[in-house]
Each structure stands twice: as C-alpha cells, then as structure tokens.
Amino acid sequence: MSRAELRLANGFTFADLQKPESLARLDADFLKRLATRDAPAHEKLLVQRTGKAFTPLEASELLLACGPVLEDFIAELFGVQKEVQTTQAATVAHDPVFAFKKLFVQRRARRRLLKKEELESFTELDAWLGGELKQQAQEGSDRELAVARYGERLLKDEKAGAEAIEKLTRWCIRALSTAEGKAAVHGWVSFKLPEGTDHHNLVPIVALPGDSLGRIEGLADARRLRDGFKLTDRRYGAREVQSEIHYCIYCHDHDGDFCSKGFPEKKGEPDKGLKINPLGVTLTGCPLDEKISEMHSLKKSGYTIAALAMITVDNPMCAATGHRICNDCMKGCIYQKQEPVNIPQTETRILTDVLALPWGVEIYDLLIRWNPLRARQWLPKPYNGLKALVLGMGPAGFTLSHHLLMEGFAVVGVEGLKIEPLPADIVAQPVRDYGTLEEALDARVMAGFGGVAEYGITNRWDKNFLKLVYLSLARREHFQVFGGVRFGGTLTVEDAWHLGFQHIAICIGAGLPQALPVPKSLAPGMRQANDFLMALQLSGAARSTGLANLQVRLPAVVIGGGLTGVDTATEVQAYYIVQVEKTLARYRALAEQLGEAKVRAGLDEASLRILDEFLEHGRTVLAERARAARADEAPDFTKLIRQWGGVTIAYRKGMNDSPAYIRNHEEITKAFEEGIFYAEGLEPKEVLTDRDGQAEALRCRRARRGEDGKWTDSGEEVVVPARAILVATGARPNIAYEFEHKGHFEKTKGQYQTNRDVAGRLEPVATLGHCKQDFGPFTSYGVKGHRISFLGDTHPVFHGSVVKAVASAQKTYPKIVAVFGERADARGDAAEYQRFRIGIQDSLAARVERVERLAPGVVELTVRAPQAARKFRAGQFFRVQTFETRAPVVNGTRLMTEPLALYGSRVDADKGLVSAIVLENGASSRLVATLQPGDPIAFMGPTGVRAFAAEKSGETYLFVGGVLGAAQIRSVGAALRAGGNKVLYAAAFDSAAQVFHQDELEAAADAIVWITREGEPLAPRRAQDRSVTADIIDAIAQYATGKLGEPTIRLEDVTRLWISGSSCLVRRLRDARGKELAPYLVKQPTTTASISTPMQCMLKGVCSQCLQWQIDPHTGQRTKAVFSCSWQDQPLDIVDLDNLDERLSQNKVQEHLTNLWLDHLFETGQVSRV
Q1: Is 845-946 in the same CATH topology as 526-727?
Q2: Cα–chain-centroid distance for residue 163?
C-alpha cells in the first residue's frame, strides 16, 4: 500500500475526515467559500437545509451553481488542483469531436445518404484528407480528433473553406456508406449514430446453421474471446462516455428528466401514472431519483468531482451501481424510439475518473459522508444512542447501514456468509492511489462482503468497487460487521432486543430455489445455478491456486430465462477451461511424483472415464494456447467449447419473452458474444442418464408460438445433449425465519406482509407495482413497540435488482428514523457505546480455542463463539471455514477450506465454547489440523434443526453411528436421556485406537455396544456395555441374541432407531431392519437418519446444494426435494438414498485429485499440523 502522507488544507487531518464534529467545521469552511463565490447560491443552500421545498428546476439550478465551487474546494483540500485542472482539460478536449459529429456527420452527411450523387471513392477522399491533415500538422495517433479539429477550423470561415467543407462532407458520406469507409472510422464516436429501438428485436440473433434443436446464437462478427475470470468488460473509454453525455439533452431544465423521475403517461398529470413500454416494463426511471441530467451537465463542462458529488446526493453507494448493474434510467430515457443514453456507463466513468486522481479513494469516501449538495444528510449526525441490527450485507444492507450511521445510529451488520477482514492499514490510513486497492478479479480475495453482489454477479462487473463500500463502512466509529451470523440461528429477534438493539432490518435477499420436478432430477451432473455460482465465486474454484471442488462437464444446459441463467451460462463456459487445465496440471505433477497407477487408483470406471475426458480436453486447451502464442493472438476457447457440445440456455418460451430480455437484454447480447446458444420453447420433461447414472441429456417438450403470440405445447419432444444441467428457474423472498420461528411475521402470498407506521400503530399496506409508489417498509412485528423493517429482495416492491435494493434503503431509512421521533436527535453516551461494542465483538467473533488429535483421522476443533454456543441445541450443526486472508500459500496453492458441516459435539455455553469432531476424509477436513489457537475462523450457526425427539420421553432408542455418530451422540444422547428416554448406542469404529472421549460417550448412553471393524475389541469399562470385533449388522445381531452377554437394553424394546453415519451405513441399516435385524426389532421402530448431503451455504434455502429428494415409502415415487441443511435428520423411509449417493458423487473426480494434491503439498511444504 502507498504510504504517501495526506496533507490536507486548512489544518485538517485524515482523522478529522472521520469525525462528525470536524466535518461540521469543514462544511462551515465550504459555506464561507460559497458565500464568497456565489452569495445567492449560498443563501439558497441555507434555505434548502431548513427543509423548504424547491421546485425541481430551482433545486437543479442551485446544485449546478454549487457544484463547481465544491469541486474547487475539494481539489484545494486534497492538494490536487493541478490534477483536477488536467482532468478538466482532458474532458473538454474531446469537444471538437462532438461538434464535428453534429455539424458534419449529422447535419451535412447523413442528410445526403439517400441522395443519388456521383462521389469520389473513399480511398481518393481519404488520401485528400490525409494530405490536408499533414499540411496543417494535424496528423497523429488520434485521427478522429485531428479530423474534428480540421473541420472546426474550416467552419470558422465557411465562405473561405466552402470547397474543403464540401469535400470533407463527401468524405463523411463515404465513411458512412461504404465498407472501406466504415472500416476506417470503426470505433469513432463521431460516426456512431443512434439506431432505432425495436423492443421486440433488441438482441441481434441468427439461427444456428443445421441445428436439429433449432437453437439461435449471436452474430459471428460480434464474438468476443474470453479466457478465465478477469474483468470481462473494461467499460467505455473517456471519449465514448463524453459522447453519451453530449447525446443527452439535459431534460432537467424543463422537468423532463424522465430517466431520473420516471416517464409519465402524461406530463404534468402524475395521477395518470407512469408509462409502460411495449415489453410491459413500467418506466420508473432511476429507483434512486439520481440527478442524472445535472450530473451530465457538470461532466460535460469538465467538472468530474462535482459530477460525482451530484451522483452521491442520492446515491452515495454508486460504487455498487452503474455499468452492468442497472439500466432503469436507460429504459426511462426521453429517447424511446432510438437508443437511449448509456447512463450507467457515464455514472461509472465519473466515479473511476475521480478514483484515478491522487487521493481519489478519499475524495469519494468524503463525498459519501459529507456532501453539502444534499438537502438531507449533508453531514453525519453524532451518535444518538440508538442501535440497529442490519441482517445481510448485500446492497440493501450495506446501503441502509450507511444511512442509519449518517443519522447517528450505531449499526451492527451481520451476514450469514463468511466475511474476510480488510487490511488494517487501509482502514486506518488514507489511500493515495486506487490502483493499490485494485486486484485482478481472477486473483482477488473473495471477501464475502456485498451478498449477492459478491457471489451472484459475475466478473462482467468490477468487484473491486465493493471494497470501496466496505472500506467506507469499516472506517465508521459506530459500525461493526460480522460474517457467519445466521438470522434464526446465531441471532433471533428476541436476542437482538436482549443485546441492546432498538431496530432490526431484514436484508437477507431471496432464496428457496426449487428442484426441477422431473424424473431423475438432481442426477450427477445436475445442480442449481445458485449452487454453481456460489461455489465458483466464494470458494476459489475458478482459480488455479484453489482447493475447492466443483465438477462440470460439457455439453451444458442452463434451464431458465432469467439473468441468473444468463450469468450461469457464461461462467460455466469460462470455468470449464479453467477446470480441465487445472486438472491436467495437477494430474501431471502427481503422476510424476507418484506414478499414474497410484493417481488413478481408487477411482471407479465411470470416474476414470470422466478424468480421461478432462485430461484430453486439458491437452487440447494447452495446444490452443500454444497455437495462439505462435500466432500472437488470443486463444479461441469458444471454438473448443462448441466442439465439446457448447453451453445452451433453454427457456420454455421465446427469448424475447424471458425475464432477462425484459429486464436487461444487454446481458443476453453479451452472453452471445461469448458464444452461448439459446433454445426457445423447451419445457424439461426428463433427465436422461448414461450407463454410469450420469446426466447425459435432457428430454424436453417443444412449445411453439401461435399467431396470438402465446406459447403452447406442440406435442413434439426433443432431446438436448447435456452432461451438465444447471437449473435457474427463479427464487422467492427469503422468509425462512418465519418457518423456523413461527408467529413473528404475518405472511401473504409467500412474502412478509408490508406495513407502515401510522402514529405508532402498524397498518397493512397493499403491495403496489413499482418502487416509485408508496410502500410499507415494516413487517407486522410490533411487540413492545419495536419495529422490524425489511428491504431489498426480501421486499416485494424492491426485489429483482441491485439498484432497487439500494433504493429500498434510501427510501426506508427516513421511515425508520421517524419511528424514534425525538430519540433520533438525542446525544448518546460514548462510554455506554464502547461497552456495547466490546460486548458484541465478544459475542459474535469466533476464534480457535484449540485443535486436538483424538485418533488417527479424527481431530477435535474447539472454537470460542459465545453467541453460537448460547444458541446451540442438541442435534444442530455449524458451518466452518478458514479465512482466505490468513490461509498460507504452499507451492502456489492456498490452503483454504471449503465450507464444512460439523455437528456441535460438546458445548459449554458458560465459557462460550463449541467443540466439533472432524473426520479427515477430504482435503478441507484435513486442513482443520493446520489451525492454531487464536486463529479467527468463520463459524456460522447453529443451523439445521434441533433434535425434537429429545423433547419427548418414554422412548427407547437404538442409536447407530460411526465416528460422526460419536460426534452427534455426545450432545444428542445426553439430551435424550435427560428427557426421560433410554439410549442404546451401537458405536462403530475402525479399531479400538479410534475411540475417543470414552467418558463422554458413556455418559451419553445407558448402554453401549463397542463395535470395531478390525483388531482387538475395546475393553468395556461398565458392566452394562458390550464389545465385539465384527461387521456392524452382525455385531448388533450378536448383541440381540445374547452372544455378547445378557443385553442391558433389549432390541425388542427399541421404539426408535437413529442412524448417524455415511450413506453406506444408512443404507445397510435400512435393509437390515427388514432382514437380519427384523426378528429383534419387533416394535418396528420409527427410524431417523442423519442425512449427510453435500452442503455449502447452510443458510436454509439459499444456495440449494443440499437439495435431497424424498419419496413415498409405499410407491417409491419421488414426492418433493427438501433442503437438508434445514432438515438434516429425516425419516429414513422417505429419503431417496439413491439420490443421496448421486448427490455425494457430484465432484468425485475433483475430490480425489484434490486429496492427492494436498498430500503432495503436505509432503513438500512442511505444513504444521496437530
């Protein structure tokens, strides 16, 4: 990081910029400057701050008058006057180009395109123009600007230059109308003329030649080569952005800035509502009411800092909006019949131009917190003693956190996902150069901060911008943030009040993606799109340095027409190349060290076929890289992907009917640029599998569009080849809390009922159509006068986009503040806040207490996590991850775990300690042994469901489990016994040496049958216990028949059977109930199995990796898919065990190689382990 000293003007220091009282002094200095420069503007600004309403035009004129003064003031404050002047000059230096476009290309040349004229060839005219430029010393690297300046010079004396003006006009005509001319001016903004808008043909497409499926694709000449996960869109250059700004007609001066305010059905008659475009989209304009026209006006004149200040009046979190994020403003643009102004590009460019200045990061951060152009929140208020808990650190959550901090609240932001800490030096010290913060997107720390903006948005958007938001909040004195905190697990509503919060805001987004209800759904190769994207973007799977396992094959089909489906399609394609390259590289290294036979040992024939497929494709990728290097060009992986079957989006209707097309068609265009296929009118009917049970194809019903425009079943079926099937069929507001803790929030139509606060009374509000209408920000919860708000994707009005989530915070915070009345303006106690802060830090932060090896392959991890310990109930589990920023790198590989699901095995709530048993059967689980006491750790939970059975009495349990069963029974067994139940424990271990915590296991059961697979039996220490070396089923039978001694608890008395272990163990016990053990289990005990499905987020319905099919126990037919992380102990008879095995085999090849690779790293890297 840069260590340059920030020397601010007028005696200010960097620390002063973080203090409300110092910012008030800065504000006073600005007001003095404004009074000197523009006394009327100064007077009006003070009036604005009293709350007096101005007309829109008056407000715009005031802000435009203040903007340049503010720019000069900030430039002087940071000592960057020269750099700002340079930026101003560079901005207006493009003006001749736009004058040339207007006066020559549009007014003169375009009007003559349809005339039949005998003109010279472009070659002849271009030679003439080259001579003119050379003669006037205008020829240079920027020919467009040179031509523009030449034209500008000619127009100064039109009479004298008439002949040259005519010839230059003819050159423009030829440049517009001939192939040679178009090629010569390719990329020139002066020749980019707006195209007409045909809402039903916004994406250029062609039919895929000779395709039996009738798929479509993008235009071949628009193809863009992609390699990996770097930023895929570098955005417009400076001139392109200025061109858009000059294209704008600055409608604010007549209250016609519909891009901001919304496009009215009839101007001046708001009661008639907003216009709806031909696609059925209500033209709301910017959900934030951002002052776009005013922003453009300032930037056009070169005032970049002032333009950013104009943006941050309404959108201080603009780093999280803009290009490739939102386009509501474009849809509302005054240009409805031709291309709109690309406002997101201009907004993002204004931000990056400021960031490019010395101390640009600090200028932006200052404008977030102090902006004298705002009519509200121009300064942060001092701490008022109120504390808000913001659940979710996505766009809604982090924006609300900012606004409440500005209002004087203390804010604790929590997130269910892991959140990496920022480097301490950038939080405590100013950042001179933004470049020192930037990371290549394919190597950046996946910080977790930003929610869906982090894991749900692809590298089309520069996620370095998230760091700016994170940094701004992290510097606030009254802000704390914690990852690994689950609403409903770690914290409940009642916990929040108990901890001292006065408000709760639910910003936890959408969830509950549904499994596709077709035969063989979730076969190996099939997964949810959310699962894929989260694994790709949070686990490090896309990097050559990662240990994460994410296995996909080609061809791939993405089911669904939304933006998530489009993103998934592009990322599957990019990831496949990374995957096969990494597989080949590690295979070669391991084969050289161990020999190929050992590397391949342990894989079944099906897995070997997949491995060889990856290796073959990996070699082809390397060959393409070599070819491209020889040709000095970028490799063409699209060609290879297509040879291997390609990636197809399959949608049940037409592309033009899809949510992605309607909301943001540009993303489909961009996906086509990467070579994606699109299949219209396909409704999935069945997943077809190969001889190994792997997904092979998707059988679909074919729909066709009728003359009435409706899609109906044609009666045809088609088979789409698909080795990977990713389901992106939508999500719903996340209301999981109410399912888990019933009675808190009223629901309606699958979402929380919206309410407004009217004089201290909650009043239901009907959910209206769009974000510019009145809405209810509160849930129905009103116990003891408390209010709980909900925002973003959780709210029915603001769901569906990042910018709406940001807007939900902007529009909700005043309503939250109003609830508190005078309390919001009180002065808080600093000492009281420090006590609160320390208490929250102690409760929610997790650290490793100790790591102990209990037996070969078995480690116990003890974590200090007081709040998690207090909330734990027997049977629940935790999600455990290490931090990337603390993970060592060994031989180019970062030793970071994937999420691990670990049962809470022993909990000491008084000391805040949770112990979990780790069975070392994969790379991530083996990395736990590398942790050291004191290490911070991401420890989310408790999650899952508590053992409800422990709340019943009078039952006799047979609990059967291996090592994981031992981990579970330590807590569950004690709870069962305390509840008045008897527990017989069949404890299965590999050998007596593997047995651990024998005292505690004995305390958890009335009697134990110690079963070892090999070696001498364990010597029992209690009279009621038995031991044997045998197969587990045989051992239980021996116990039942008295061969091990008189049974202490007879199997004939067992009323409940609980199985905790591998799917193999579960299957064996299921079968044995009706066979070998049937004579003894005479009461046909109710059977529960702890289902160890793959898991990732463990937040109960977000990523959906844990989806598990259930069946009708009588027919064997599937009934529904459930989220196993919210129901991990399931009735055995309704579990589809075949599907469980299939789910567990999803990443088999990757897991095998990763395990061997970790062996290699441990051997060569001298990694310390317990």
Answers
A1: no
A2: 59
Rg of the chain in Å (alpha carbons): 33
What are the tokens at 87?
A: 């930026």
Question: 381-512+732-820 maps to which CATH number?
Answer: 3.50.50.60
Strand residues in 722-813 grouped as ranges (E): 724-727, 732-733, 747-748, 751-752, 755-758, 761-764, 788-790
Q: How far apart are CA 108 and CA 848, in angstroms?
A: 74
Please identify, in words, the CATH class of the domain defined by 526-727. Answer: alpha beta
Report the chain's mean pLDDT, rounded to a whole number.
Answer: 96
Q: What is the per-residue DSSP string for 600-658?
A: HTT--HHHHHHHHHHHHHHHHHHHHHHHHHHHTS---HHHHHHHTT-EEEE-SS-GGGS
CATH number at 845-946: 2.40.30.10
List Cβ neighbours of 204 (8 Å cut-off, separation of 6 or more).
218, 219, 222, 669, 672
Q: Where are the domains of the chain?
A: 91-191, 381-512+732-820, 526-727, 845-946
Q: Tens digits of per-residue pLDDT, 961-1005? A: 999 999 999 999 999 999 999 999 999 999 999 999 999 999 999
In the block, tokens 């590289």 appear at 585
Q: What is the DSSP letter of 845?
A: -
- How far CA 477 is from CA of 410, 414, 1161, in Å, comes to 8, 16, 42
Q: Is the Cβ–Cβ distance between 755 and 765 less than 8 Å?
A: yes
| Confidence bin at 269 (pLDDT 50/70/90) | confident
- The whole-model pTM stands at 0.96
CA–CA gap between residue 190 and residue 188 (Å, rounded) = 5
Distance CA 1159, CA 1155 (A): 6
**How do strand 711-721 and strand 695-705 relate by DSSP bridges?**
antiparallel
Distance CA 463, CA 475 (A): 19
- Measured N-to-C along each axis, helices 605-631 and 1148-1165 cross at an angle, to the nearest 10 degrees, of 70
| Calpha distance 778→763 (Å, rounded) | 9
Q: Does the CA dihedral 361-364-368-370 come out positive or negative?
A: positive
Q: Is beta strand 755-758 parallel, antiparallel or unpaired with respect to 847-855?
A: unpaired
